[in-house]
Design a protein that fits this description.
The complex is a heterotetramer, with two copies of chain A (about 400 residues) and two copies of chain B (about 375 residues).
Chain A: H1 7-23, H2 27-30, H3 35-48, H4 67-79, H5 86-103, H6 106-118, E1 123-126, E2 142-146, E3 149-159, E4 167-173, E5 184-190, E6 196-201, E7 210-221, E8 225-226, H7 232-247, H8 256-265, E9 267-268, E10 271-272, H9 277-305, H10 315-336, H11 349-352, H12 354-365, H13 372-383
Helix pairs in contact in A: 1-4, 5-6, 5-7, 8-9, 9-10, 10-12, 10-13
Chain B: H1 7-23, H2 26-34, H3 41-49, H4 68-81, H5 87-101, H6 104-116, E1 121-124, E2 140-142, E3 145-154, E4 161-167, E5 174-180, E6 186-190, E7 200-213, H7 219-255, E8 257-258, E9 261-262, H8 267-296, H9 301-327, H10 338-349, H11 355-370
Parallel strand pairs in B: 1-4
Antiparallel strand pairs in B: 2-3, 3-7, 4-5, 5-7, 6-7, 8-9
Helix pairs in contact in B: 1-4, 4-7, 5-6, 5-7, 7-8, 7-9, 7-10, 8-9, 9-10, 9-11
Classes of the chains: A alpha+beta (about 400), B alpha+beta (about 375).
Protein name (chains A, C): Acyl-CoA dehydrogenase
Organism (chains A, C): Halioglobus maricola
Family (chains A, C): Belongs to the acyl-CoA dehydrogenase family.
């Protein structure tokens, strides 16, 4: 057991690091570009040199690299201050890409995948609906056949990047008379199509990372279908498995180190709070969880390193991480006492930003990508193999399933 | 044995609830949260007319001389409505401080105006992040003029009279002072916070005229007394918010369907809401104890205050965060009302000392209560 | 709001106290009696003077007292060191009595209730079965008609006091071909009947408070049926509602005071543990729960005082109390460090008995009378009026319900 | 990156598991728990023959010189089986202490016997309820004779060699001593405990012959080092118990039906078991870290030990108590096996310092690790 690279890994790491250091864009190269453009410039540069989406086949813009090499490249890139395109591209590259890889025909793969890798085209994902939520397959946006096209009406929600995306992957209900999972079909759509309207959703943190997307008689050619009609749920599982692998534990800026630093700065009964044993006990318990997540990730990496794929046990990262971070942020605000109420990004980061921003942002993380409750279900059912809840909607035509409406 | 509010008191609560149901719907909270008002002035006038600001002020000072039971019930309803008002800072803090230790002249000057809601008060002690400590107070007084900076004062940009903790005139520890903000020697700056439906301000005093409030050198003790009393009332306001959060979560869990049945039929949700109910019920019972101790000035007050305060802080945090969770994605949107209670739960939880600080006080108080 | 008696309550309290003080048995009276006999002596004395089961009608051995008077009498009795018959009689008086009161004919009420009140006859309750547990109505012990009798075969479990009881109340399956709740019938049985075999169950704490009771061709006359054939579930609800009212929160000897006393006795970092803020924080949180339960009980008493009956919200007492007590006992053992492992009733109570005994006993309290999970269900369904889980066995003949066997 | 046991190590684990599945079924635990044996002597002989007691002892002292990875995996399996053996006290404590600070002569005298399992050792430091403190140790030494009373010593009535913390010969703080129990000057009394499947004894020393173990005056530091190292191994043993508890609960939840379906299909049970899985998984990952730090003698050892220890203590407590809860009434009976793990979880949780004490140590260690 060690934390060291194997010989092959070390060689790859050196190669990656060398390339990254030599090619990390200079301020000259980036002059005049905004954040988005900087990210895309860097992505293009990586793609041109074969360092984009390196797990993908070379023929589709990748490098035929292993999962472990992908992780090593990410680690090395994270050590440098490179422009960040991840936030714009992770859905396309992390979810749409693998889905196209599995389900698209060769022509479409050649048409779309290299552009996904290079950032030339941006993709978004349109699965969730207002009536869906945790019950993802309960979606209602319908597609009705019309010649060689489908006509789409309905509403999607929680679509990040809808406004700057070129393409979207989506699941639609093509048959409400059969059981919930059976009546779905999977498509991709040009996000500039007539009839698509995008409205940002403001979150309680004040930012708008997601959108509502309304479809009014939007026309999608049948050639943009992935999988058979009625096979949409199966196709979407490909997407979702990759979503889960992407979300991960999410390192938070509110963590043991930042909370300990705060506890060194404020006092309790006139002494540094870090000397107060109630503070120490809480910090220690959180450290144990944080370390547990970190070393669980190391174990997953070791499995990757051997060629195994990470399993559903990765659900614990988000579950434990989000609820812990919420409690830590709340506790940090308590340590700040009355002034903890202040949230001002122009002021002292430790007093008026970090913990408040996290306090307001974290409820979203406990929900996005599967609520705490869904994560616990996944662990219970897929890891521990416990039986599912009785399904009230089993075998029932979708249109007959009770909705409370 | 009658550990319950009497009928007149329950009538006060029912009227308060009815009034706020009509006049302080969440649209009012949203208006203040999103807008440029420091507080809901129209609502403030109405509740002042109803006498809420005068509740425990004796009749000789223009109040209506009701007990703390009535005030506790009003606090609960304001909490339930998440009212965007400087009620807590003016009534639980400033009014209480003047009532407790003000001179006859000070009472005659300020209480009638506070009772009528014409004047809004607050109490300022914090000077920076973390706990306040008597030896660290940098607010000083010389020649009847007070100088210093107070941070994150609740209702700080609304109040026109402020109880200010400063160093004693005679190097005798700390003292409490009364300062009117009408002077240009007092500068207030509203700050950005996690709960914009309440006003918080930094306040700078530069040789502002001040009067001693209570005895010189007694500032810290006065502060602790006021905080003990206010903690009970905050606990009631927090309880109201926790109850609203549970009610919202319950209603949504009945309306929202997943997998062909209301989400309220899943044990994950049922047990979450049961836990909210448990926490709220215990918090309510402890708040009763607090109200009893406050209204009878019992020697158990410090213990009862800590108990009520901790119970309500825990209950409100849990209920407000799990209310969002029960709502799922929609609960995290700006458009939904869950956010008001989540913000408010934290703002109130640190208003008169964090849960952590009250845990320490509780153990101290348990020694005294046992003695 | 006050903690004082009303005028009427105060008068009753004075009357009760006077009687109790004057009649509390002297050591002379009790000489030569064992614990059981002492309890029964005292119960008889109370009954003779009209102070037994005081809520019951006078004609059945009671006093026609109110619920509040019952509580006051209990409070006053608890202040004195009287012999304790409660542990032997509470099931008969708390559950069998109210059930007979509601469902028995007048002749049986006259025959049984005064003897229940005076302690002349002891009753036990036989509901639970090995296959039942939380799903109480899934019981299988069957009664088959035979002339004017029923022949009973099967096994009951968790019967306390079975070996010293004269009578037992029990629910039996008289028809397995109808739905679970429909095929039950309620009886009482002479515990000395031929074919009843009683085996004590040893618990993990080492004591045996409960029994298994085996029925082999036990004959019960149809005249000992309460309610109609098939109405057993409805009758048993009378019993169960009274069980819930009886169990209450259970004051534990492991509480704030005892844990604080321990924290004053042992040290942390050389200072009394009570000065350690981590200990203080935990103690404070437990105090808040303990006080919350205490004052919730006071509120229930106030409701009683006005003639209202306590509702299902009383389920919180056991739920909160048991899990809190478990954590407190575990923490106390931690404070004792290595010596905390010792459990010896001959040694220092605070070091080697109280916390260890509770640690070993408390898992039972989290289960008996409804598990934590059932209590949470009760709160959710009966207080918050949330819907039941989907019922797999609904409308199914009992014999068709899956059992895993 | 290879944060995983290698194949040889996994083979050790598989063999240990297979052996214990056959030779240490819960009937063996029950036999010791209910009977008069101090430990399962037959099993002890077998595991000694398998070399488990010799795992990390170098070959020159009669051991087999494997790494702490192998010992950790054996510890996990012993924990999983709830083995009624003085393995922890003899191997993690006594053997480790002698290995760490024993003189060459001491090593040559004791390690071969400990390796062969002929001699069983332990470590005695506690003298009464609560924490041990160096200044409170009342065990004294004069003229090579040790006197004092140690309480609740694990394996105390089985061990024939004991590492004893006493006052220094020269008034120089505390020292560690080695005492053989063969003398009649050592009296052991098995005490009654919450886990009778392990032996605990009070031990009185009256002028018992002793040897210094390690440097004079270094007793407290030696104790802390030994506890840090042992904590990692205890964490593995605790983890094994937590895993057994989860496995039992899972199996029962699949077999037991209520309301026409397996109780494992109810979210209340599913989420309880998911929580066990989460705690166990995090504890396992932290135990890996501990094993790595132990085997490499990394400077992070104190931090890694505290992390592993706390994680496993929490996981085992939760899993063992909720395993009973999942079993319902039957789980609370003497007849069922749930009790073994509930008892053991607490016994191990206080064996080398409570969770609370390790939390304090963790924060200290985090300063050092960061430095």
């Amino acid at each position: 057991m060690d934390f060291e690279d194997s010989k092959e890994e070390a060689a790859f790491r050196a190669e990656a690091r060398d390339w990254l250091i030599s090619n990390n864009p200079t301020e000259e190269e980036l002059a005049g570009l905004d954040e988005f453009q900087r990210g895309m410039f860097w992505q293009k540069k990586k793609a041109d040199a074969g360092w984009a989406c390196i797990r993908w086949p070379k023929v589709y813009g990748g490098r035929d690299a292993t999962e472990m090499q992908h992780v090593i490249f990410q680690q090395e890139e994270a050590k440098l201050d490179t422009p960040n395109a991840h936030q714009y591209l992770h859905i396309g590259q992390g979810m749409a890409g693998p889905t196209l890889m599995t389900w698209a025909n060769d022509a479409d793969k050649e048409r779309f995948l290299p552009d996904l890798a290079s950032g030339a085209k941006i993709w978004c994902q349109l699965f969730s609906e207002p009536a869906g939520g945790s019950d993802l397959a309960a979606l209602r946006t319908k597609a009705e056949p019309d010649g060689d096209d489908w006509i789409v009406n309905g509403q999607k929600i929680w679509t990040s990047g809808a406004h700057y995306s070129d393409w979207g992957i989506l699941v639609l209900r093509t048959d409400p008379t059969v059981a919930k999972h059976k009546g779905l079909t999977y498509f991709y759509v040009d996000m500039k199509s007539a009839g698509i309207e995008i409205k940002p959703i403001k979150q309680i943190s004040g930012t708008s990372e997601f959108n509502e997307v309304y479809f009014t008689n939007v026309r999608i050619p049948d050639s943009q279908r992935l999988g058979e009609v009625g096979q949409g749920w199966q196709v979407s599982l490909t997407t979702l498995m990759n979503e889960r692998a992407n979300i991960g534990s999410g390192n938070s800026a509110v963590n043991f180190d930042s909370l300990k630093a705060l506890a060194q700065r404020v006092t309790i009964n006139g002494k540094p709070a870090i000397e107060d044993s109630a503070v120490r006990a809480k910090l220690a318990s959180w450290y144990v969880e944080e370390a547990g997540l970190k070393f669980t990730a190391q174990r997953s990496l070791s499995a990757l390193s051997k060629g195994d794929l990470p399993g559903p046990e990765n659900s614990i990262g988000k579950l434990v991480g989000a609820r812990k971070t919420q409690d830590m942020a709340a506790f940090a605000i308590d340590l700040l006492e009355q002034q903890g109420v202040e949230w001002d990004e122009a002021k002292d980061e430790f007093v008026s930003q970090l913990f408040q921003q996290t306090y307001m942002g974290i409820p979203g993380l406990r929900i996005a990508g599967g609520t705490d409750e869904i994560m616990a279900n996944i662990i219970a059912e897929r890891v521990l193999q416990l039986p599912q809840e009785p399904r009230m909607d089993k075998g029932m035509a979708f249109s007959d399933v009770p909705t409370g409406a | 044995m009658n550990f319950e509010f009497n009928e007149e008191q329950q009538l006060v609560r029912d009227q308060a609830r009815g009034f706020l149901n009509t006049n302080c719907q969440t649209s009012v909270v949203r208006r203040v949260l999103e807008g440029n008002e420091l507080y809901a002035q129209d609502l403030w006038k109405q509740i002042a007319e109803l006498g809420w600001t005068a509740t425990t002020i004796p009749e000789e000072y223009g109040g209506i001389g009701l007990s703390y039971f009535e005030l506790a019930l009003i606090a609960e309803e304001l909490g339930r409505a998440c009212a965007p008002l400087p009620f807590a800072s003016s009534v639980y803090l400033a009014t209480e401080a003047i009532l407790s230790v003000g001179s006859e002249a000070q009472k005659l000057e300020w209480l009638p105006k506070l009772a009528a809601g014409e004047v809004i008060g607050t109490l300022a002690y914090s000077e920076g992040p973390g706990e306040a400590r008597p030896e660290k107070i940098n607010t000083t007084v010389s020649n009847g003029s007070l100088s210093g900076v107070k941070r994150a004062v609740p209702g700080g940009d609304i109040a026109s009279v402020i109880c200010v903790l400063g160093q004693s005139l005679q190097g005798n520890g700390t003292s409490m002072y009364l300062v009117s903000t009408e002077s240009d020697r007092v500068t207030t700056n509203t700050i950005k916070t996690i709960d914009p439906s309440l006003n918080y301000a930094d306040i700078s005093f530069e040789n502002a005229h001040c009067e001693l409030l209570g005895e010189d050198g007694n500032g810290w003790e006065i502060l602790q007394q006021v905080l003990d009393r206010a903690a009970v009332l905050y606990a009631w306001e927090q309880l109201g918010g926790a109850e609203s959060s549970l009610e919202m979560a319950r209603n949504y869990s009945l309306e929202r369907y997943a997998f062909g049945r209301p989400i309220g039929s899943f044990q994950a949700i049922k047990h979450k809401l049961a836990e909210m109910f448990v926490k709220n019920t215990l918090a309510r019972s402890n708040a009763y104890y607090g109200a009893w101790a406050l209204s009878t000035n019992a020697k158990e007050l410090p213990l009862a205050a800590a108990t009520a305060r901790i119970g309500s802080s825990q209950a409100y945090y849990y209920a407000s965060k799990e209310n969002i969770q029960t709502h799922g994605g929609m609960g995290y949107t700006w458009e939904f009302d869950c956010q008001f209670f989540y913000r408010r739960s934290k703002a109130l939880a640190i208003a008169v000392g964090s849960e952590r600080s009250w845990q320490d006080k509780l153990i101290n108080a348990s020694d005294i209560a046992a003695a």
